[in-house]
Amino acid sequence: MSSKVELMAPAGSFEAMIAAIQGGADSVYFGVEQLNMRARATMNFVIEDLPAIAHLCKQSKVRSYLTLNTIIYDHDISMMKVIVDEVKKAGIDAIIAADQAVINYAYKQGVSVHISTQANITNVDTIDFYSRYADVMVLSRELSLNQVKQVCKAIQKEQIKGPSGKLVEVEVFAHGALCMAVSGKCYLSLHTQNSSANRGVCVQNCRRKYKVIDIEDGHELEIDNEYIMSPKDLCTIDFLDQLIDTGIKVLKIEGRGKAADYVKTVTACYREAIDSYYNHTYTIEKAESLKLKMREVYNRDFWGGYFLGREIGEWTNVSGSQAVMRKIYIGKAVNYYAKTGIAEFFLEAYGLKVGDKVMITGPTTGVIETVVETLHVNEEGAKGNAEKGDYCSFKTNIQVRNSDKLYKVVPSTIDEKQLAN
Amino acid sequence: MTTVIFRRKKCIGCNYCTEIDPKHWQMSKKDGKSNLIGSVDKKGFWLLKVQDNEREHVESAAKVCPVKVIEIRD
Q1: What is the dihedral sign for C-alpha A217, A223, A227, A229?
Q2: Looking at residue A380, which CATH number applies to its domain?
Q3: Cα A235–Cα A239–Cα A243 angle in degrees, nearest 5
Q4: Which of B14, B27, B30 has its CB closest to that of A196?
Q5: Is B13 part of the contact surface with chain A (CB cutoff 8 Å)?
């Protein structure tokens, strides 16, 4: 049997990167400052982080890829070269690029290139074209399963090989946000806010409500679904077997702007689904239960994207996330007692009680989820609950670090007010 | 006098300020970010005083900046 497909997870911060590794990713991708499609995200890394990222990933036996996939202007060339040079020096495994300037320079420097979905690859001849430069290529998100299959078959048949001498590997997006524009080439944000999606500063106006107004008589037309430009999130977990059977080699999860707990949950679900595919325990029931699990974190509801060959997209019917669970910040870690596996927290915002489901996140800790079994409060010893302003401790069994954040995980229907009562 | 404050570190190099107000802005070929011509660096905030009759120009640059890192103050 051929080797397993690679599971690639997004990382917008060290916290999310650790979370991806904890979730069982085979590889992670991330951006630095300017030239990437999430330039606005405050969570971007800086160039100086590259050695630490390379070290962390090598230690965890996870491959690391840097996205450098915006459109590139003349004034960006020097910076682009600096980034590629630093990628090479630090030992990051590859860069993900769409602009030919980046592809060409990285190739000449001997840095592995993945062709980004922004390059909009939809046929095998384009694969052939890019095979002079790249061993891995992300297909356009608009292809059907059948089209993906044909591309993979043709690579085999025509023996299209990348610079490494191996057959070109096809990568597809398996999960995460979709947008209404073909391969993300959207100018809506630029037109309305002067904020180009193709420079990584999309303001996501497609996610808002709109009305259609007849200019001549001023009538506002009602549309059944008001979020007509905002597709639901892509989710392939319930037909993952068919997706893997197309011959793809890499499954990518979208979400460099997402929080660490999202990355861990979604990565872990796809890890389980992929593993079960290979050990023949993948069933539709399992897929459904994993899908349910993913509904706990940020989502705009799910659909199968264009893979299933539908004529029209499925649009969201509410604004923002439809996650069934949410996390509420309650305090921070102040101590960890390694011998006993007990962590101490200061409850800055809300109280905590025995039986609460909690999550602890931090740049070295990643994401820990646990349930409070016993609670020690201040100097008073074991108690059923701790109030805001208290110091409390409970068993985490996994090391936490000072200043790690403690969250309570509650159903989305519960708001802060109810929590305070 | 009008003061232009530019948080250069957050610039994403989109080029709009230089298009709309080339007298005060220039793209750096070194790092792909914009330079506020003649400004002084005060701990990451690049400051430039301009005459009031130039306010309109610098304001137009502040307005088009997608990441809002240009601020105009009296």
Answers
A1: negative
A2: 2.40.30.10
A3: 95
A4: B14
A5: yes
Count of domains for chain B: 1
Return the C-alpha torsion angle A100, A103, A108, A114, nearest 10. -160
Taking CA atoms, A197 is separated from A32, A186, A202, in Å, by 16, 6, 4
HSE of A7, CA atoms in CB hemisphere, 13 A: 24
- pLDDT tens by residue, A36-83: 766 665 567 889 999 999 999 999 999 999 999 888 999 999 999 999
Search chain A and give the residue with CA nearest B12.
A34
Distance of alpha carbon A323 from the chain centroid:
15
Domain CATH for B25: 3.30.70.20
All residues of chain A having their beta carbon less than 8 Å from the beta carbon of residue B33 are: 34, 79
Residue type, A56: L
Cα A181 to chain centroid, rounded: 19
Q: Which of A193, A137, A177 is nearest to A320 (CA)?
A: A177
Which of A68, A75, A201 to mutate to test binding with chain B, by most B CBs within 10 Å of its CB? A75
* A174 plus A295 within the same structural domain: yes
B32/A39 CB distance under 8 A: no
Q: What is the pLDDT of residues A322-337, one digit of tens each?
A: 888 888 999 999 999 9
**Total domains present in chain A:** 3
Residue A150 and residue A187 in one domain = no
Look at residues A191, A211, A278 and name the one whose alpha carbon lies nearest to residue A240.
A278
CA distance A93 to A58: 10
Classify A80 in phi/psi space as left (phi over 0), alpha (psi -120 to 50) or beta: alpha
The whole domain housing A201 covers 182-221
Please judge whether A34 and B16 are an interchain contact, meaning their C-beta atoms are less than 8 angstroms apart.
Answer: no
Token pair recorded at residue A87: 């990628």
Identify the three-state secondary structure at position A292.
Answer: helix
The model carries a pTM of 0.84
Structural domain contains residue A309: no
Q: Which domain holds residue B60?
A: 2-73
Within the 10-49 window of chain A, which residues sit less than 8 Å (CB to CB) from chain B?
A: 33-35, 39-40
Tell me which residue in A34, A78, A199 faces B29 most closely, judged by beta carbons. Answer: A78
